[in-house]
Write a structure and sequence with these properties.
90% of the residues lie in helices and 0% in strands. It is mostly helical and 60 residues long. It has one domain (1-56). The protein starts with a helix and ends in a 5-residue tail after the last helix.
């Protein structure tokens, strides 16, 4: 029985490690996505700003 407990404990630690790694990877992916969204928004702002003179007015 003691050997089984050790095996279960080791497996539990492996699962925690895998979960932690997965969480870190998901966090990194989310951060990359957020950064891309921010960059897209900045690009859109630049395009809008460049078009404003053509229309002779601004929304501010």
């Amino acid at each position: 029985m003691h050997g089984m407990t050790k095996t279960l404990e080791r497996r539990r630690e492996e699962m925690l490690d895998e979960g932690l790694l997965l969480g870190i990877m998901q966090g990194i992916n989310q951060k990359v996505e957020n950064q891309e969204i921010v960059q897209d928004a900045q690009l859109i702002d630049e395009v809008i700003d460049s078009l404003k003179p053509l229309y002779g007015r601004s929304n501010q």
